[in-house]
């Protein structure tokens, strides 16, 4: 092949490769499923007043009501990272109580939530209500799908959406 053939081969290769783009491969998605729940955190200061808790959630014309089993809440304590990049954390009780109301489905449509319950002595707690909109986010990237969460905090003032 002479000089014109080599020149033609180089030019063709340059034209063909310049049309290629690098598309980074997205990181893998965690293999977890989203639970359709309303989660409630009873604030530390309000825990001594709550003996039992019941939630009723209504969304898109469908309501679900049940007693909520409360468990001790925790906060993550950073344990730091090693020089090779391995990081760790531990859970430590924070004085709150947490519970969940399982739903058949959860969307970003407006939701009406009602909390009732009793004190440890059996006295009725004030009825608390909240109208809010569950939040959607992409915690693992858009390629992994949207997660919808409905989280609230119950304290002496009432119910409020968790941040």
SSE arrangement:
Layout: H1 3-18, E1 37-42, E2 52-59, E3 62-68, E4 71-81, E5 87-102, E6 111-118, E7 128-132, E8 135-137, E9 147-155, E10 158-161
Parallel strand pairs: 1-9
Antiparallel strand pairs: 1-5, 2-3, 2-6, 4-5, 6-7, 8-9, 9-10
H/I helix tally: 1
Rg, Å, rounded: 26 Å
Structural class: mainly beta
What average pLDDT do the residues reach? 89
**H/E element string?**
HEEEEEEEEEE
Could you list the spans in which at least 5 consecutive residues all have pLDDT below 50? Answer: none
Protein name: Lipoprotein
Provide key terms for this protein.
single chain; 163 residues; mainly beta; 6-stranded mixed sheet; 4-stranded antiparallel sheet; 1 helix; Lipoprotein
Detailed description of the structure:
- By secondary structure, this protein is mostly beta strands.
- Strand 4 and strand 5 form a beta hairpin.
- The radius of gyration is 26 Å and the shape is flat.
- The model has no long low-confidence stretch (mean pLDDT 89).
Task: Describe the structure in brief.
By secondary structure, this protein is mostly beta strands.
């Amino acid at each position: 092949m002479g000089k014109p053939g080599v020149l033609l081969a180089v030019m063709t290769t340059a034209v063909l490769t310049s049309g290629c783009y690098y598309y980074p491969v997205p990181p893998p998605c965690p293999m977890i499923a989203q639970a359709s729940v309303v989660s409630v955190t009873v604030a530390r200061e309000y825990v001594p007043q709550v003996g039992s808790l019941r939630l009723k959630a209504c969304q898109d014309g469908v309501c679900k009501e049940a007693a909520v089993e409360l468990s001790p809440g925790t906060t993550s304590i950073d344990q730091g990272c090693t020089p090779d990049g391995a990081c760790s954390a531990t859970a430590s009780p924070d004085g709150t109580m947490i519970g969940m109301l399982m739903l058949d489905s959860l969307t970003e449509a407006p939701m009406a939530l009602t909390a009732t319950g009793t004190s440890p002595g059996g006295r009725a707690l004030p009825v608390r209500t909240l109208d809010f909109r569950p939040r959607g986010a992409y915690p693992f990237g858009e390629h992994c799908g949207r997660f919808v969460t409905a989280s609230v905090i119950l304290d002496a003032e009432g119910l409020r959406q968790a941040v």
